[in-house]
Amino acid sequence: MGSGKRLWYSFNYHGKDNHSVEILEYYDTRNELRDREVELVNEDLLKEDLCMNLKSGGDGGFVDEGHSEKFREGNRKFVKNRWDNDTDYRNKITKVLNDNLKRSIENGSLLGRTNFKDKIHSEASKEKMRKAKKGTGTGEANSQYGTCWITKDGSSKKIKKEALNEYLAIGWVMGRKG
Asked: Are residues 50 and 35 in the same domain?
């Protein structure tokens, strides 16, 4: 029925059943609809007692981009706090996301891609991939560059090579022992 602030206040006060929706016109695109809404939701309409719009043109209640960003930031903090502190909420959202992901994989619509199951790359495609990857992940572009594994008393960890001598001096040995 809508998402406006005044509309939801009215739903809470009068009840959703005491409101109705009337479709005035249909448009083929969102842009056409937006243009028509600019014509309909004007200063005269905003002055009417029953008007639920906060501003003309149907852009919503945000005054400017700063107001919009402030709202988004508050929402991010609220959701993060709820995620961190409400196990039931976290489990519910995780289940919904996992179910959606599984469904997307099953129907091949994941990120608008078709499912690649039971297909193989052509040799030309494989060669293009080899060329695109050649030289990447080597030298400083490699995430492991400049690190090494050390072990002491059954515990292993990865460190920067610059710190290796300090660790060797206190009993660590090079290598990863499981």
From this structure: yes
Q: How far, in Å, CA of 99 to CA of 92, rounded?
A: 11
pLDDT digits (tens, 9 = 90+) for 37-96: 889 888 898 898 888 887 887 566 666 778 778 888 888 999 999 999 999 999 999 999
- Give the pLDDT score at 135: 79
In a domain, 122, yes or no: no
Per-residue burial over 2-30, b if 16 or more Cβ lie within 10 Å, else e, is eeeeebeebeeeeeeeeeeeeeeeeeeee
12 and 40 in a single domain? The answer is yes
CA angle 128, 142, 152 (to 5 degrees): 145
The model carries a pTM of: 0.35
The secondary element (H helix, E strand) that includes residue 131 is: helix 123-133
Q: Which domain holds residue 10?
A: 5-58
